[in-house]
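F.,

This is the one I mentioned.
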């Protein structure tokens, strides 16, 4: 569909067009899942020709990569607020729950986290990848500061915790949301019960173990990393 959508003539109008495109992609991604949304779908939702959309975004991947960056900012702010309410020395389980709860509350962000390295970073300009990576770097640094206030973690360990949380959230969300027919199969056969994934509890268990391992007493003569 098209609606006589006029080309933006000013910086403000261009920004409004871009935001309309991002809003449409967000709505469609939440409804269908990121993989199911095409550039044509987004164009129709906005009321533009697909060719006109290319004046604002180079590919569908750039649209969703930009949404992933926004998701990082939003999630980081929420997580840091949760960590900020905790006292130094908080247990690994409590910190793990802050990570897990803030991620599970953002299903589309979890979907984007899985899609970003698989395809969203692969069909965009290097400048788009650079801009995305700089956003994630800034948020990782900010989250790390919140973690180090609570636990005696090295910078590299903080990065590992954040990477574990985000990569697992993306992977587990994909496992937990198969198609309707596959979901019905899992529920119909008791032997497949293990395939029904609860993202939050599993994420809490793994992050608790990770944080506990990092904060346990280091061996006197640690072996060289492989």
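My design for it:
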């Amino acid at each position: 569909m098209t609606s006589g959508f006029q080309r933006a003539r000013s910086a403000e109008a261009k920004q409004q067009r871009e935001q309309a495109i991002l809003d449409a992609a967000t709505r469609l991604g939440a409804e269908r899942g990121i993989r199911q949304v095409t550039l044509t779908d987004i164009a129709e939702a906005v009321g533009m020709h697909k060719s006109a959309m290319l004046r604002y975004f180079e590919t569908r991947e750039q649209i969703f990569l930009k949404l992933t960056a926004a998701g990082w900012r939003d999630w980081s702010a929420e997580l840091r607020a949760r960590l900020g309410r905790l006292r130094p020395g908080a247990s690994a389980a409590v910190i793990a729950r802050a990570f897990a709860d803030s991620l599970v509350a953002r299903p589309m962000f979890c979907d984007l986290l899985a899609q970003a390295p698989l395809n969203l970073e692969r069909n965009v300009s290097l400048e788009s990848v650079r801009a995305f990576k700089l956003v994630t770097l800034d948020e990782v640094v900010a989250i790390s500061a919140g973690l180090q206030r609570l636990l005696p973690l090295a910078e590299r360990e903080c990065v590992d915790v954040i990477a574990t949380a985000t990569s697992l959230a993306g992977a587990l969300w994909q496992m937990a949301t198969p198609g309707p027919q596959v979901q019905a199969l899992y529920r119909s056969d008791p032997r497949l019960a293990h395939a029904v994934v609860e993202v939050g509890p599993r994420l809490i268990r793994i992050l608790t173990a990770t944080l506990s391992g990092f904060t346990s007493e280091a061996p006197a003569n640690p072996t060289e990393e492989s």
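The radius of gyration is 20 Å.

Talk soon.
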